[in-house]
Structures are given as C-alpha cells and as structure tokens.
Design a protein that fits this description.
The chain has a single domain, classed as Immunoglobulin-like (Sandwich). It is 12% helix and 47% strand. The longest helix is centred in the first third of the chain and has 14 residues.
C-alpha cells in the first residue's frame, strides 16, 4: 500500500470515529422514596451504568454521575421509584416514554442537573 493510500485511510478512520468526552450528571432526588436512574444514548445502543445495574439515589439526596460519552451524543435519563417502575420520570425505565426536557447533549467537561421532584 502506498504512503498516500495509508494517509487517506488513516484520515477516514479518524474522521468517522466519535470524539470521546467526559461529562457528569448531578441528580437530585427530591422525592420521599429512593429512585433508580439510568442514562440512555439516543445515538447508539449504550446505557449507563449498564449491565443490568442502576444508579440508586436515596430519598432527599443527590449523586454525581460521571460518564464517558461521544461529543454531540444525545443522552436521556430514565428514573423510577425503586421497586415501582410504574412511577417514573424522563424516558422511563425502558427508554420508551416521550420527553422533551429529559435529554442533554454530551459536551466535554460539563455537568447537567436533573431534579427528580414528587
């Protein structure tokens, strides 16, 4: 392979790969019940924390949730009362509820706040 072809191939690979970004979500649970939270990518099949786990947030407490995402990626939250997923917020536990205000754009070194209210 010529040097020119290798350079073109390297440029294409770099152009097609997404740039990783580290950001955080600051989740405030203002409810009197513990809540489970998952974050869902709208642009790829990725869930945080993933592997069947959730971020569990105690009543009237808060948690910072750091994650690595792709710059520009849309991330939505789904939250529900621990033990009762019929009481949910955001896109819900199955990422299937409509929501206009529960999605954020992945931007390097940013923090988004999520207030879970009763």
């Amino acid at each position: 392979m010529t040097l020119f072809r290798m350079a073109v191939l390297a440029a294409l690979v770099c152009a097609s790969s997404a740039e990783a970004a580290d950001m955080a979500f600051f989740v405030k649970n203002l409810r009197k019940e513990a809540v489970a939270v998952e974050l869902f990518s709208r642009d790829r099949e990725t869930i945080w924390p993933g592997n069947g786990k959730v971020f569990l947030i105690d009543p009237n407490s808060q948690k910072s949730v750091p994650l690595s995402c792709n710059s520009g990626e849309r991330i939505c939250y789904g939250a529900w009362v621990d033990g009762n997923d019929r009481i949910s917020a955001g896109v819900g536990p199955d990422n299937d509820q409509p929501c206009d205000t529960c999605c954020f754009i992945c931007v390097e070194h940013t923090t988004e706040t999520i207030d879970l209210v009763p």
